[in-house]
């Protein structure tokens, strides 16, 4: 019986290793640490880097045009950007592995004015251990990742994090 149990446990471990699930890291491993640096291209030209935003509260959302929950979240992010932009808060949408023309078409059609960055190769998403889309990160003015949210972020949650990170 002990041999069967050990064989079963070994099989489960091998399956987990082959899918990567035993080695998966959660974004929670980053909380309380400096947020991973990035320097990404924008769909309309130019670049945006985390280093250039030091001193601001950063709301960083990973999304894609094909992601239905991401589409639901966009008006909330736009509203937060309009309300808090220029007041020590920046909202950035990091598009996950799509080409500029389709991202530009989506942002134009949805009248999005907050900055969009392109993570075409997915390396930045990897550095944040993105579990799925959308995922939103809350970065303090000191560059430390304070928290994250998986799924559609609600306006109340955004306001709560902004107030917390601004020290209000």
Rounded mean pLDDT score: 88
CATH-level-2 architecture: 3-Layer(aba) Sandwich
Shape: globular
Helix content: 25-40%
The major pleated sheet works out as: 5 strands, mixed
Q: Name the helix and strand elements from N-terminus to C-terminus, one letter apiece.
A: HEEEHEHEHEEH
CATH class: Alpha Beta
| Measured distance between first and last alpha carbons | 60 Å
How is the largest sheet built, in terms of strand order?
5-4-3-6-7
- The quaternary structure here is single chain
Total separate domains: 1
Question: How many DSSP helices?
Answer: 5
For the CA atoms, what is the radius of gyration? Answer: 18 Å
Q: What is the SS-derived class?
A: alpha/beta
Can you identify the CATH superfamily?
A: Glutaredoxin
Strand content: 15-25%
Total number of beta strands: 7
Uncertain residue segments: 1-23
Furnish the topology, listing elements before pairings.
Elements: H1 2-19, E1 39-41, E2 47-49, E3 57-63, H2 68-84, E4 89-96, H3 100-109, E5 116-119, H4 123-127, E6 135-139, E7 145-150, H5 155-166
Quick tags:
two-stranded antiparallel sheet, five-stranded mixed β-sheet, globular, 37% helix, 7 strands, alpha/beta, 168 residues, Glutaredoxin
Would you summarize the structure shown here?
With 168 residues, the chain is of the alpha/beta class. It is built from five helices and seven strands, in the order H-E-E-E-H-E-H-E-H-E-E-H.
């Amino acid at each position: 019986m002990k041999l069967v149990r050990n064989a079963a446990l070994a099989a489960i471990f091998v399956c987990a290793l082959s899918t990567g699930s035993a080695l998966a890291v959660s974004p929670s491993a980053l909380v309380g640490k400096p947020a991973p640096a990035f320097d990404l291209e924008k769909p309309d030209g130019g670049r945006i880097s985390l280093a250039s935003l030091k001193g601001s509260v950063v709301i960083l959302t990973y999304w894609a045009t094909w992601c239905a929950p991401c589409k639901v979240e966009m008006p909330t992010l736009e509203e937060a950007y309009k309300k808090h932009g220029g007041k020590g808060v920046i909202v950035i949408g990091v598009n996950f592995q799509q080409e500029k023309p389709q991202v530009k078409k989506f942002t134009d059609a949805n009248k999005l004015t907050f900055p969009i960055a392109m993570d075409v190769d997915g390396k930045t998403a990897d550095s944040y251990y993105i579990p799925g889309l959308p995922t939103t990160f809350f970065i303090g003015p000191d560059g430390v990742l304070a928290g994250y949210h998986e799924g559609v972020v609600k306006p109340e949650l955004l306001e709560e994090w902004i107030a917390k990170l601004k020290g209000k």
